[in-house]
Predict the structure of Cyclase family protein.
Amino acid sequence: MHVLTELGAALAAGTVEVVDLTTPLTPETPILQLPAPFANTVGLSMTPVSAFDDAGPGWAWNDLRLGEHAGTHLDAPVHWITGRHGRSVDRIEPARLVGPAAVVDFTAEAEADADALLEPEHLERWEAEHGRFPRNCWVLLRTGWSARGEDPARFLNADEHGLHAPGPSVAAAQWLAAHPHVSGFGVETVGIDAGVAGGFDPPFPAHHHLLGADKYGLTSLRGLDRLPVLGAQLVVAPLPVVGGTGSPARVLALVERTGA
């Protein structure tokens, strides 16, 4: 197929760049912490099996303990009560995991107010300027939050009142869930909801509405400032964990560099 041949040539020539949007996963990678009495998931821990020693003189490998929702990860519909009868991560159609990236720049709002809420008018303004969101797209909310990623306390941004991080309002979550072209919603923060969204009606509306509508979430993305508003293609690669409510994922964007 000529299209794939041309893509391969462009990748080899560097006119199409592969941009990694994934947060490196370490035991220190920040993960969501829910208040008591709710249970919390674990992050990453590694136990050596062998490392070029008597247990394995010619090889090294590790056992991993890892939460489904650690680091950059995908939320599948069955993660939330509204999607509990929907798709687990292994049942998501591969074609839904590859599609156009549509970047909504919300950086100024997030810098002015850590609790800034994305509203339908922001999304409608985007479509008025750039055209309707493309079919099977991932809407990526750029907030500049990934600059906090090396400092877990600053990244989670918690105080006695809870987390403070930008995200969609109830109305924006409904808007995205109802849009027929949107396959998923991605953020730079620890979760697809705003930090204060536990107090909304319904609580955590991005989870409630998007996962209930067979749309998917991506969290803890980095490098969104390297993407154009439109034109990049996103590749989301979660582990196909049978029955899984989500999975850590490698998220890549194919970006054309016209000046290359």
